[in-house]
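Subject: for your reference before the review

Hello V.,

The reviewers asked for a structural picture of the protein, and I figured it would be easier to keep everything in one thread rather than splitting it across files. Below is the amino acid sequence we used in the manuscript, unchanged from the supplementary table.
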Amino acid sequence: MSQTAPAPTSSAAAIIQRDRDLLIHPYLPSSVEERVVMREGNGCRLTDIEGNEYLDATGGLWLAQVGHGRKEIARAAAEQMERMEYFMSFWEFSNERAIELAEKLVQISPEGVQHVYFTNGGSEGNEAALKMARYYHHRRGDSDRNWILAREQAYHGIGYGSGSATGFPIYHEGFGPMLPNVKHLTPPWPYRTELFGGEDPTDFCLAELERTIQQIGPEKIAAMIGEPIMGVAGMIVPPDDYWPRVRDLLSSHGILLIFDEVVTAYGRTGSWFAAQHFGVEPDIIVTAKGITSGYMPLGAVLVSDAIAEVLGQDHGFPMGYTYNGHPTSCAVALENLAIIEREGLLDKARTSGEYLLRRLGELADLPVVGEVRGVGMMLAVELVSDKETHAPLIASQPPQDVIRYESGVIARDCGHNLVLSPPLTMTTAELDEVADAITAVLRKLNPDGSYNS
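And here is what came back from the structure prediction:
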């Protein structure tokens, strides 16, 4: 029997207790009592129900491109809701906002991408992309092409297909069996020289890829999926020649390339898409997050002419979501992309990212800092207990928690990496605030994981 919901109350303690009693939070053990309940957001600032103020250096889950509290986006949503909040986009039905957004996405996307399939987010987008790749080959008479190549420490979401492509054991344990015919390869992590046995990282990864293709059989492989910059792994930036060489090798075997740009798209790297940053033309690009800056759930899978033509044959692509092309979400996305354009946030992401990278680079000599890296407003500080062996640092208290407690700056950990993905609107003064807060904590962090008082 369900319990009667408690009456609303303005007491912060009561609200926090209701959260503990009712909500299941992703990745939060039930033993953890702390809750930070946010109430307001404005620009890069957040305020919780207890009146504490924070500086958001994560963009939520890496998506608040235009910052919080944009009234023009709220107006766009309200105007669309008043006109028509929702109708389906199955079969022959559509809506004006979805068409307008598809036109805009094709306009800003890499060459060769001319078609759009809408989803609700990144996990769904990667599910759709994997199905598209397999279905494309199936309709061309190559039904045996059902293998998917991915990378270790890749993150592609939490569906069964996207979760199987994800290369972290924690996302598989207890959920198996996972999707069959998925092979994970070595990530192009230049700092981790121990992965490559002294070889050039790109040479090593390309040799492994070619070897894997031959072992499985090129006629059995549908696609390779990869994040252009590996986010959850710790903002891993590959060598400049990695993706162009991967693209050429896959193309020589008729294997599709899926770029998971859920994190990197819509200005995060200083370009509309990371594919443009690396000079690569994928067959499929999966996007979400920054398409609306988090104001509404939405994702978009961008597809080449060749694939769209095959998917559209016979009865069409037999896969759809209730909220495909949701008109209110699309209206929000259109206004969000317009803000990115009129405020010059692509250029700002590049210049701000370079500035923050320089500030964080001042920490490179600290004994606990192995590497500082980044592209645009995607940055990471890799923490190590030994610079010679690159051994990861396990702190007695997570550095991101200490940073938040001491300064109100919200950062994120990904394993032993401290990662940042601030709103693209962040001012220089706020960038300095982020860098100063991180510097203050890392200067007192010891290689054994303890902190100096």
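For the response letter, the relevant points are probably these. The longest strand covers residues 378-386. Confidence is low (pLDDT under 50) at residues 1-8.

Happy to draft the paragraph if you're swamped.

O.
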